[in-house]
Every structure is written in C-alpha cells, then in structure tokens.
Specification:
mainly alpha; globular; 5 helices
Length: 145
C-alpha cells in the first residue's frame, strides 16, 4: 500500500512539474490539461471507443474530485462524454499551483485506472506521451505491429 502511494506521488510530481515550471497561470494550466486530454482521447478512442475513454474520464474525475471539492460534479452518467469545458473553467478559477496539482492528480488517477485494466507495460506505451507535457496539437502514437 505504501509503495503504491509513493508511486502515485511520483507520477503526480512528474505530470505536474512541466505545468508548474512553465507557468503558475491558471488559464495556462487549464489549457495544458485540456491539451493532454485531447491527446489521451486521440490515442485511446480508436482502441476503446469514445464512450470507453469518457467512462474512464468520469471515473477519474469522481475519484480525484474527492480531494478537490471545487470541481463541478459530473452528471448522472446517462451521457457518456467528456465535458472538458467545465473542468477547464474549474481549473482556471483556482490558484495556479492548486490547479496544476489537481490536474496532475486527475491524470495520475486516470493512468492508474488504465494500468489496472491493461497492465503497466501497455498503459505506459499508450499513455506515456499523452499524460506528459503537451506538445501542441493532439497527436496519436504509432504502435509497432
């Protein structure tokens, strides 16, 4: 249990570091977060579908949102889609370091959920570039055949 917590803390730190060192500007943190999610969606949707990505997004938001009560609650689950605009707005309203920490924890929670489903090796291959600092427009990763 302690090892899992330490690993998650390391992952959160690795994800948060680029956003915090570049800027503490909440809108910039929110834009970076949305860009990462667009990368994740582009990477995983062809594999598990948009509904699958949205379900994992919603679960991650539910789990990590317990630590950040200012995150707007998600709907009743009938509409399986990611509403990035609501979360982007919530992040913009927080101090930059708080927004970056929440975004990093959310991404780390998502990473943990995916790892639990498909294992660490494949999740790292699929999500490694998607959860790290964004490189502009959404990109898909070519996997060897």
């Amino acid at each position: 249990m302690t090892r899992d917590l330490a690993r998650k803390a390391t992952l959160i730190s690795e994800i948060a570091t680029p956003a915090l060192t570049i800027t503490r500007d909440p809108p910039a943190v929110a834009r970076d977060f949305v860009s990462r999610w667009l990368n994740i969606d582009a990477t995983l949707s062809p594999i598990i579908g948009r509904g699958g990505v949205a379900a994992l997004y919603r679960r991650s938001l539910h789990v990590s949102g317990r630590n950040y009560r200012w995150i707007s609650p998600i709907g009743d689950g009938q509409d399986l889609k990611m509403d990035l605009t609501v979360l982007e707005r919530d992040l913009e309203r927080q101090p930059g370091d708080v927004a970056a920490r929440a975004a990093a924890e959310f991404l780390a929670t998502f990473h943990d959920l995916v790892t639990g489903l498909i294992g660490p090796s494949l999740s790292e291959r699929l999500l490694g570039a998607s959860t790290s600092a964004s490189q502009g427009a959404p990109q898909t990763k070519d996997l060897p055949a």
